[in-house]
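In line with agreed milestones, work has continued on tokenised descriptions of protein folds. One protein thus recorded appears below exactly as we store it:

>
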Amino acid sequence: MTIADRIQSLRKAKGISQEELADKIGVSRQAVSKWESEQSSPDLEKVILLSDYFEVTTDFLLKGIEPTAEVREKEGQDAGIYAAVGTAFNFIGLVTAIMIWIEEQTANAVAVGFILIAFGCMIYVIGQIVGGRKEKAKKWFLMINPWIILLMPVTSAFNFIDGTIHGSWWTFSPFPQLYMQNSFVMVGLCWLCYIGICILVDIVVVKKVFCRQ
């Protein structure tokens, strides 16, 4: 079996067309057609992209060499572990921000939360660079983490707008504040906006990531 056969076999196993694969890799449909008909071969950069997308090793694509059990285990875990640790840091960042706010009522709560979340996202990015099975790790990270990351920005924006409208004091906080002149309806609108934005992000992720797998 040649590299052309392997690319075609992996593509069909994914259930995608040549055009869809071309879009994912960043080449024309004609380029994919030429790869599969042995008229040309992908360069090294595209081989790496193909291996990441199909979640196989470059050795398998180029030579048909199946990875050993040890390599499969390493490549199957790395990116997922980074994504899980990054998600944990993001969650800890949000919880820490809420706890500090309840205790001290200070904008430093949001600052601390954002620092931990930034660290969690950095861990995830490192996993995408050095880990294996990046596509699987990416789609689950992008499905879960918007619900963690977006709460403080949406809440802070809500508090700013609400404070400006009512001419009252406002601050960054990890959850919507019920000021004296506020109604529960306004706070409810904040939660609806947050939930709506997160659902929208998840829909985009499903269309852009899941549906291309």
